[in-house]
Write a structure and sequence with these properties.
Elements (H helix, E strand, L loop, with lengths): L6 E5 L6 H11 L9 E2 L14 E2 L2 H10 L2 E7 L2 E6 H9 L4 E4 L2 H10 L4 E6 L3 H11 L4 H15 L7 E4 L3 H16 L11
Parallel strand pairs: 1-6, 1-7, 2-3, 7-8
Antiparallel strand pairs: 2-5, 4-5
The structure holds guanosine-5'-monophosphate.
Guanosine-5'-monophosphate binds next to strand 4 and strand 5.
């Protein structure tokens, strides 16, 4: 069956393990394209320019927005972040799919710009399980955990609008499920009668 390069967007609540899932699936599908986002925030210790992010000025960011250079962009914590088309297109043109790890709002912005993008929501087995994982990290106090859980519920509310929901119960199983989804959408199996997805 013919293989078609696709843009995959993976979202899910903080603590659900989507970063681990994406990096594990990349080990299994080495041609999956990696993108470097642009941001106006300052580099943190240990971050490498043009590897961690493209660090640019607000003026540059505004110019790029005006030029339509972003597939999607958003503001977080007083800075701007975005995915440049120039990061995505070379992979697709070479016939390689791209996987973006991005929040719910970013995911829907991607869908607006590129309706054939495949949106995958990574969900925890249950809210209780996610709460336990967040506590297990030990990085946050009770108020912060409560705030995160509120956000999780908001994010989970968007899950039905995604093309696929993947429950991250067992990491090995979820990695295989994500790999299968990607391979499925890359073949004609991912196309419905109307030619969508
Ligand atoms: P940080 O400053 O901690 O690296 O990232 C802050 C936030 O920006 C995170 O929630 C991260 O997911 C988001 N972010 C990073 N890159 C992008 C991007 O390209 N587009 C959007 N919409 N958000 C991004």
């Amino acid at each position: 069956m013919a293989r078609r390069a696709r843009l995959f967007v993976v979202s899910g609540p903080s603590g659900v393990g989507k970063g681990t899932l994406v990096s594990r699936v990349r080990d299994r599908i080495p041609n999956l394209g990696l993108t470097v986002s642009a941001t106006t925030r300052d580099p943190r210790a240990g971050e490498i320019p043009d590897v961690s992010y493209h660090f640019i000025t607000e003026d540059e960011f505004e110019r790029l927005v005006a030029e339509g250079a972003f597939l999607e962009w958003d503001g977080h914590f007083g800075s701007h972040y975005g995915t440049l088309w120039s990061e995505v297109n070379p992979h697709l043109e070479q016939g390689n799919s791209v996987i973006l790890e991005i929040d719910v709002k970013g995911a829907f912005n991607v869908r607006k710009a590129l309706p054939e993008a495949v949106l995958i929501f990574v969900a925890p087995p249950s809210l209780e399980e996610l709460e336990a994982r967040l506590r297990g990290r030990g990085a946050e106090n009770e108020a912060q955990i409560a705030q995160r859980l509120e956000r999780v519920e908001m994010e989970m509310g968007y899950a039905p609008q995604y093309d696929e929901i993947l429950v991250n119960d067992d990491l090995d199983q979820a990695t295989s499920a994500l790999e299968e989804l990607i391979r499925h959408y890359e073949t004609d199996g991912g196309t419905d009668q109307d030619g969508n997805h």
